[in-house]
Amino acid sequence: MPVLLHIETTTRVCSVGLSKAGQLIALREHHSKEYSHSSLLTVFIEEVMAETGLKPVDISAVAVSRGPGSYTGLRIGVSAAKGFCFARDIPLIAVDTMRALTRTALLRMNDLNGMIPPAAIETLFCPMIDARRMEVYYALLAYDLSVVHDTRAQVVDGHTFAGLLENKKIIFFGDGADKCRQVIRGCNALFVEGILPSARGMVQEATEKFGRKEFADVAYFEPFYLKDFVAGKPKVKGLSS
Q1: Domain that includes residue 72, residue range
Q2: Does residue 186 share a domain with residue 133?
Q3: pTM
Q4: Mean pLDDT per 10-residue run, the chain (241 residues)?
Q5: In three state form, how does the secondary structure of the chain look?
Q6: CB contact at 8 A, 181 and 191
Q7: Residues 103 and 187 in one domain
């Protein structure tokens, strides 16, 4: 029975979980306006270990959310995951962030009863991660999590989903969906609030990949940034931008 450590840091949510045989057994999460992952990750890992009575030697593999998302968050999460794998000589599992976010949404909507339309097979799921201004990272997935449109970076306007929304319901969620609510119109556009990346949504894919021995190369694995990192220009004191 594999025991997996799950690390999710693609956004301002810092989430760490432990699963055993495909079931989540411990979870720690913190959502902040500031990135505090570097100070929280180690603490959260220690806390989920203490809660379950497990030790590092009991961990079979580490699963990390691969992106896209915040450059800073991705670097911190992947570095921590690699460090744990190197120290214990265990495999690294890369989990697709958009699929994991969609699984989190499905778990949440099942809990809320009735949020998923009856004709779910005709419904598309659109996880969105904020990429600043009106740009988001998004993908479109069917109910079985098959990919309809690959993950992309997009400046969203009123025309982005207009054609699809004529014939299909689309459920939008994630921290990028909130800012798109005003420009995405139509009775087939459904928005669900409060769904953010979580280690909870990583468990199924990570467990399946462990069973198939589908591991990332610990030495050479890099996050899926999607866009190149662009550092902001430092402000010069006394000058306005």
Answers
A1: 3-96+197-212
A2: yes
A3: 0.88
A4: 96 96 96 80 96 97 96 94 96 97 87 54 88 89 91 90 89 91 88 93 97 97 76 41 31
A5: CCEEEEEECCCCEEEEEEEECCEEEEEEEEECCCCCHHHHHHHHHHHHHHHHCCCHHHCCEEEEECCCCCHHHHHHHHHHHHHHHHHHCCCEEEECHHHHHHHHHHHHHHHHCCCCCCCHHHEEEEEEEECCCCEEEEEEECCCCCEEEEEEEEECCCCCCHHHHCCCEEEEECCCCHHHCCCCCCCCEEECCCCCCCHHHHHHHHHHHHHHCCCECCCCCCCCCCCCCCCCCCCCCCCCC
A6: yes
A7: yes
* Token duo for residue 176: 């990028």
